[in-house]
Amino acid sequence: MIVKITHFDENADIPFIDYEVNGLLSNQMNFLNENLEEETSIDGDTLYIRLYFKDIFPFQSEVAKIRLDDFIAREEIEMNVFLSGFLEDM
Predict the structure, then answer these.
(1) DSSP state string for the chain
(2) Which of 37, 55, 62, 76 has a CA 20 to 30 Å removed from the CA of 87?
(3) Is the separation of the CB atoms in 3 and 38 below 8 Å?
(4) pLDDT (tens digit, 9 = 90+) per residue, 51-80?
(5) What's the predicted TM-score (pTM) here?
(6) In degrees rounded to 5, what are phi and psi of residue 49?
(7) Apex CA 29: angle with CA 23 and CA 32, to 5°?
């Protein structure tokens, strides 16, 4: 599974991060699309997830602004681990 952040907006009314997930089997994509609480969609072999943040946005700190690539990579890893755990319930 490959998780990539494609877009984020911390200044939106409700800040969000968009993820693109590749490398899943079609039954895994369908399971995630039907069972995740987040906004999801499927286009071809790609699952798209939009995660909204009502409390703390992961990239809002001053350190995050300086080391944004590190924070994005960490967030991608955390989403990968979350989705892998979620798929164990399949």
Answers:
(1) -EEEEEEEETTSSS-EEEEEEES--HHHHHHHHHH-SSEEEEETTEEEEEEE-SS--TT-SHHHHHSHHHHHHHHHHHHHHHHHHHHTT-
(2) 55
(3) no
(4) 998 887 777 767 677 788 888 888 999 999
(5) 0.89
(6) -130, 135
(7) 125
Residues in contact with 52: Cβ distance below 8 Å, sequence separation at least 6, in sequence order: 14, 15, 16, 38, 39
Q: Give me the phi and psi of 56, to 5 degrees please.
A: -110, 120
67's tokens: 């080391």
Torsion of CA 15, 21, 25, 27, to 10 degrees: 10
Residues 15, 51: Cα–Cα separation, whole Å: 9
Residues 6+ apart with CB under 8 A from 53: 14, 15, 16, 17
